[in-house]
Amino acid sequence: MYQRILVPVDGSALSDRAIAASIGLARQLGAAITGFVAEQPRGPRKPAQGAARLRRVEDEDTLTPEDAQGVLERFAAAAHAAGVPFEGHHACVAHADEALRAEAEARGCDLLVMVSEGRGPFGEFLYGSQAKAVLSGCRLPLLVLH
To answer: How far apart are CA 5 and CA 13, in angstroms?
Structure first.
């Protein structure tokens, strides 16, 4: 059914849930996993437009390349311990949703597994929804964990 699963991670407790769930799913399906960390560029940002203007600006919460590599190494160790083929990639990108779609296409992924904080309508208005942004432009099946 599915042969390669793309799983975006960021080192948070939520992404740890995506790691565990995707490994279990890949094991059942006999699929391989591509882990992906989309780092946000550091430095000054252009002012946001529309509702995005209300988002929190937490530039200090972005991952460094070393952090990204550490997250992917933990993911790889868990996948290999479960006997699931794994490869990890990271990139510094301005728009994570676009980068996820491009990564899925470049790596030949046929399923995307990601987590959502489930902030509700008001929280999505204030902070946005990465899952919705990916879903709106992605042609792959998307499994969203809550």
So the answer is: 20
> Residue 68 half-sphere exposure, CB side, CA atoms within 13 Å?
18
Burial 83-94 (b: 16+ CB within 10 A, else e): ebebebebebbe
| CA 109/CA 12 separation, integer angstroms | 23
pTM, two decimals, is 0.78
Q: What are 140's two structure tokens?
A: 């792959």
pLDDT tens, residue by residue, 113-122: 988 765 444 4
Q: 128 with 97: CB under 8 angstroms? A: no
**Domains of the chain from N-terminus onward:** 4-145 (3.40.50.620)
Residue 9: CB partners within 8 Å, gap ≥ 6? 15, 18, 19, 35, 36, 37, 71, 72, 75
